[in-house]
Amino acid sequence: MTKFLLAVHVLAAIVAVGPVTVAASMFPPVARRVLAAPPAGSGTAALADDDTEPVIPASDDPGAADDPAGTLRLLYRICRVYAVVGVVVPVFGFATASRMGVLGDAWLITSIALTALAAVVLAALVLPAQTTLVEGDGTVRHTARLAMYTGVFNLQWATVTVLMIVRPGSTTGA
């Protein structure tokens, strides 16, 4: 049963967390491209309320391959959906750790804390910043801040991954 739980935990992490980290990382540069692009048919970029930064134009064809605004919306949807799906990762992680008897190990407690912090960064910083940009209220400065939030989120997941592989001080064999 432990092997099954571990397999589901690892597969869930790959399938759920992987797309969020990639899509979240791709989002800021695509948002900058969208902000720099003039709205369809205008020849100039739309400006935000403060007249200093362009806002994201709405697209007439969201399915177009060369539509950065459509790509932005797709990346946003991937982040939102897979963030919810990602809840299964810690659920199976706790079940696996319980079966292995490592719930009190320092490496696991650190991983749990980093996972919780990553979830907070995603829910409180990354997704709201993406929402602002998708809704057309963002500026280039918002993309820079979002890139920082995304980097912190990805660094937390990378650290958790290393801790799960190396398991420093673990007696379960690594």
Q: Can you lay out the helices and strands and say which pair or pack?
A:
Blueprint: H1 2-36, H2 68-85, H3 88-100, H4 106-134, H5 140-166
Helix pairs in contact: 1-2, 1-3, 1-4, 1-5, 2-4, 4-5
Characterization of this structure:
With 174 residues, the protein is mainly α. The chain contains 5 helices and no strands. The protein has helices spanning 2-36, 68-85, 88-100, 106-134, 140-166. Helix 1 (2-36) packs antiparallel against helix 3 (88-100), helix 1 (2-36) packs parallel to helix 4 (106-134) and helix 2 runs antiparallel to helix 4 (106-134). The relative contact order is 0.16.
Keywords:
mainly alpha, 5 helices, 174 residues, 70% helix
In short:
This protein has 174 residues and is an all-alpha fold.
Task: Specify the overall morphology.
Answer: elongated
Percent of residues in helices comes to over 70%
Report the C-alpha radius of gyration, rounded. Answer: 19 Å
The total of beta strands comes to 0
